[in-house]
Amino acid sequence: MSCELAEKGRSGVINPIFTCQPCGAQYASIGIKDCIGIVHGGQGCVMFVRLLFSQHFKESFEIASSSVHEDGAVFGALNRVEAAVDVLLMRYPDVKVVPIISTCCTEVIGDDIDGVVRKLNAGLLKEKFAGREVHLIPVHTPSFVGSMVTGYDVAVRDFVTHFAKKSVPNGKVNIFTGWANPGDVTAIKWILGEMGIEATVLFEIESFDAPVMPSGNTVAHGETTIEDLRGTANAVASIVLNRYEGAKAAAYLEDEFGVPAIICPSPIGIRNTDILVKKLKKLTGKAIPDSVAIKRGIALDALADLTHMFFAEKRVAIYGNPDLVIGLAEFCLDLEMKPVLLLLGDDNAGYAKDPRIKYLLENAGYDIEIVRNADLFVLEDRIKNSGLALDLILGHSKGRFTSIDYGIPMLRVGFPVYDRAGMHRHPVVGYDGAIWLAEQMANTLFTDMEYKKNKEWVLNVW
Amino acid sequence: MPYHLFKCSQCIPEREKHAVIKGPGEDLSMALPLGYLNTIPGSISERGCAYCGAKHVIGTPMKDVIHLSHGPVGCTYDTWQTKRYISDNDNFQLKYTFASDMKEKHIVFGAERLLKDNIKEAFKAFPGIKRMTIYQTCASALIGDDINAIAAEIMEDMPEVDIFVCNSPGFGGPSQSGGHHKINIAWINQKVGTVEPEITSDYVINYVGEYNIQGDQEVMQDYFKRMGIQVLSTFTGNGSYDDLRAMHRAHLNVLECARSAEYICNELRVRYGIPRLDIDGFGFEPLSSSLRKIGLFFGIEDRAQAIIDEETAKWKPELDWYKERLKGKKVCLWPGGSKLWHWAHAIHAEMGVDVVSVYTKFGHQGDMEKGISRCEEGALAIDDPNELEGLEAMETLKPDCIFTGKRPGEVAKKIRVPYLNAHAYHNGPWKGFEGWVRFARDIYNAIYSPVHQLSLVDIRTDEAIGDAGFATRKSFSDANLPEEVKNSETLREYTGKYSIIPDLQAKTHPEFARREPEPAAV
Amino acid sequence: MEDSKERVSQIVDHIMKNCLWQFHSRAWDRLRQNENILGMTAKILLDEKVEIKTPDDKCYWVDAVCLADACRKKFSWISSSSREELADVMASLKERMDFLTVTGSLNEELTDKHY
To answer: Which of A88, A370, A371, B262 could form an S-S bond across to B42 if both were Cys, CB 3.0 to 4.6 Å?
Structure first.
């Protein structure tokens, strides 16, 4: 038996799992109300990220570019940031929060975005926009460091660092959801609501699922306010649902304001949701109400119909954001499945020390390979060249051709999902997420059984 | 032809010269929007970068090539799987993308070694592929890696492979168009003339500026083959690397998207004496005229005419079915570049719609000259539009449909304007005779969608909504049609399949006898 | 005179709506295209012999044939004009096209020395 955390063994990337840091910072920025970020770099760094978001959500989000061209790359492009802030503020009178998000290009040329923010604060904002609340927040996200996951983590920290302000305790819990979908936020807020816990959810993105209205609203945007962000310093504690996507901010609040940081396992599946609910109870002293127990019971009821008959021993490969991958793997184990290949798409050294990964490797009880700094070609290579047998793939849309070409059923989960409809609307976390995930996995397998005529008659009686 | 300053752009008056309204009796010498200038920072323009113009638009449609970007992973990831340019080799170019994955240590110490390892790994991972294109990015350009030298070293070590290097970092120019330019020139400088092709016909063309969106190239190639013409290469949709190295042997360059590929045609004309013939693959009349010209060039106009007659007879009744129902509908033609002039006149003349606005994200003034010439009076022409200007234009012009990109399409949806994807198409291909009917069908479906009609209702009001359980497109489109049109026995709705490319790929084409070679001079 | 102006403008309108050859990239290309294509079109309309020596000539001729065909089909005055009238119209047309696409053009890229 071999259980290992391996490297992919190639220096380059074939079919990446993640994009780079600025995307993560942009994802965080769209969760904030009255916020339009300026990405300081070439225009593609914004245009394609906006396209990616619109592919995933079928919505458009506003993000600006400083449009660095040749002259800027040679002589420095801070003047482009100054112009961008001016133009953006003139044309968008409601904008209050403007993160200045760096890229590989502007980090390499050494543009001092902190300096230009100081300059703008002292100059332009005072002179031209006096009396208007505007927050310029430098966010350093060079593309050659980390990945979109770390970019998100860094940006959340920078937003919190900028705004968090100690005043009177607000009795709320900070919930850092990590890189979530609207459906996830709804599921978490349902639990908080049932337990009567007041929380600041970072970020309030249920509104990403925006309606078509007769009055014609134009773009989707998040609802987290400046006040929400300020208040994070006055919370009872911070609960981090995805340690790689929000722990930096929680650590800051702990160090700076003494707000305890609680890192939860990603609440994917019944067991991890139980842990979250228990932690919430312990933290707030609020009882776990019947409604939560009933929802849990409904979930267990649904899972019991599926596990032994359909899931047991099914071999699964999972890729995507690290907390999601680990959470899904743990849930699969509870469902009697065998996650055999987990792909983590960046070079974060912390994965080796992650207690969940250690526990997985020590206790899974069968061959399991976890690859750090992986790409999607690792998945294909294991199937094609190492004879890896798989029953199911869990991952985002960028891996769709591996599923299609090798005839392996795949449930779309994570970010981005653009080749299945409406997936952002559904949760993977909480008891609701456990139900949805298990049933979707089952339906995915069922469709495949029918398509391949593989014991399709089993479903005659179920 | 007055310039038009949007209300939302009054605070950036330099925008005024980027939009004009085409007035009666006015001509191009009176006003022309500025174009291809640096973008105004913070304006939320829709432009991309020169890297994507080179790699994403022109490089990657090449089908038998490892496409490797030298830089951090994001450039590669972001430009991967956002297009519908297919190929007849199982879409290798859509499925696989490669990045050297440059990290901080490489920024400090250089990434040439990393690149070299990458190239070897990539060829090892795909032993059947012997061709590679390498794209520079902002990061590798700024640290000064010598990609050409690395490629040369590899080709020395591995004589069976061939590598093309495109140095077009993201910041190189006002938009993706900078990248179109760089890769055109790089290709002719590095690769054209390095392969001698097998000539199988007396009539040999390069088909240039065609990216095989949903199979466009395969539709047009079918016509060429039916005429007995050898398509030596396609630049670059469904194109083959080695075929493109042999471009110098064509008799004629047939140029479709002049915006992205006129450079290489101009160079081929100057360096190899191959004439440049600009054509339109869209619209019955423009396409017929284009095929006729190609036929005339080779003295085989009868073959062209046979195709035109056959296709027109087959598809015109279907096009006209839609034309009757689209007459007078207002559309905004808001693509990236060339489609603004490919479509402006043809959709007006052949589908009856009124183009109330044209815009171009990355076009140059030459594209606006063509676009403004081809659209009707009163149209609003915008260069490098931004988010607010697009909204303001839609609010004032109240179009029935807009043709634009996926993300701006989402903006339009929210103000209840249906959109069609001008870059990737809804249900293409849209080139060719049948394709043009498919385009008309897609416009019709968008405008008369029952769901779209529902979005116009405010459920909170007392407005009567009737008690029908459903509506059909026809119930809206045919409501005010004359009886003879509604009940016409000649007009009919589109009858083609969902997917029309597999049949084309399976098709065998007629063999034409070659001309006797001319007797050698004594 | 007015008649001639109107006729020129009819052909200009046809070219602008339906043709692409007049909008090559640079001023020298446009002048070359106008000169050759309109020159050959005039010869075709006047039933004069067109000399084709090079592939470029062939390409001009192709556009000229199509333009001449379209003019004959669309503009009945072509067949009723005298040779002199027609030659005049075509000369003015060339002048007008040079103006619209080159000398009067606001396209700032026409004078770029490179492609």
So the answer is: A88
Residue B216 · residue B280 · CB < 8 Å: no
Cα dist from B166 to A108, B55, B138, B155, B173, whole Å: 21, 8, 12, 16, 15
| For A142, nearest residue in chain B (alpha carbons) | B104
- For β-strands B380-383 and A173-176, DSSP reports them as unpaired
The CATH number assigned to the domain with range A173-290 reads: 3.40.50.1980
| 3-state DSSP assignment of residue A426 | coil
CB A295 within 8 A of CB A432: yes
> Both B316 and B240 in a single domain?
yes
How many Å lie between the alpha carbon of A304 and the closest alpha carbon of chain B? 38
C-chain residue closest to B251, CA distance: C55
Confidence of residue B515 (pLDDT cuts 50, 70, 90): confident
**Could you tell me the pLDDT band of residue B368, with boundaries at 50, 70 and 90?**
very high
* Residues contacting B147, CB < 8 A, separation 6+: B70, B115, B134, B136, B140, B165, B167
pLDDT tens sequence across A219-237: 789 999 999 999 999 999 9
What DSSP assignment string belongs to B78-145? HTSS---B--SSTTHHHH--EE----HHHHHH-SHHHHHHHHHHHHHH-TT--EEEEEE-HHHHHHT-
The CATH number of the domain where B104 resides is what? 3.40.50.1980
Q: Parallel, antiparallel, or unpaired for β A392-395 and A315-320? A: parallel
A18/B contact by beta carbon, under 8 A: yes
pTM score, whole prediction = 0.96
Write phi, then psi, for B510 (nearest 5 degrees).
Answer: -65, 145
Q: Are B337 and B257 in contact (CB under 8 A)?
A: yes
Is B138 in contact with A90 (Cβ distance < 8 A)?
no
Per-residue pLDDT reduced to its tens digit, B255-268: 999 999 999 999 99
Distance between first and last Cα of chain C:
40
pLDDT value at C1 more than 60 = no
The CA distances from residue A92 to A177, B9, B420, B451, B515, in Å, are: 29, 11, 28, 32, 68
Nearest neighbour of C58 by CB, restricted to B262, B267, B297: B297
Of A21, A142, A216, the CB nearest to B414: A216
Partner residue opposite B293 with nearest CB, options C16, C23, C62: C62
**CA torsion, ordered B212, B214, B215, B217, to nearest 10 deg:** -20
Do the Cβ atoms of A64 and B82 come within 8 Å? no
Expressed as residue numbers, the domain containing B274 is 193-326+477-510
CATH fold match for the domains A21-151 and A173-290: yes
